[in-house]
Known about the structure:
Layout lengths: L2 E5 L2 E4 L4 E8 L7 E7 L6 E6 L6 E3 L7 E6 L4 E6 L8 E8 L20 E6 L1
Parallel strand pairs: 2-10
Antiparallel strand pairs: 1-3, 3-8, 4-5, 4-9, 5-6, 7-8, 9-10
Amino acid sequence: QVQLVESGGGLVQAGGSLRLSCAASGRTFSNYHMGWFRQAPGKERELVAAISRSGRNTYYADSVKGRFTISRDNAKNTVYLQMNSLKPEDTAIYYCNADPLLRPLATMRAQDFGSWGQGTQVTVSS
C-alpha cells in the first residue's frame, strides 16, 4: 500500500490560485493512477481530477474543468493539483489517493478507497 501526504492548502481570495502536492511513498508510484478528491462540509467526497500512471491521460470534473490542472512527476513520487480562478464553492478538504486497479479515470469513486491521508484544507473567501 502506498502512503500519501497532501500539502499546499490555505486561505485564498476568490480568483486566486493554489498548488496542492501529494507525496507518495511505500510502493512504485508509477504503477498507480492518481486522483484528487475533495469534501466540503456536509457533502460527500467527490473526484475532482485524475491522472493516468504515465501522466498522458487526465480527467476533470465539470466543476473544475478549465481552472484546475493535474500533473505528476514520477521521479519525485508526487502528484500536483494547480488550482486557478478559485471560487468560494471550491472550499473543501482536498485528498489524493492511488488506484492500483487502474480503473478508467472518470470512474474513480471515493468509496473505492479504504484509507486516506489527512488531506489539506482549501478555503476560498469571497
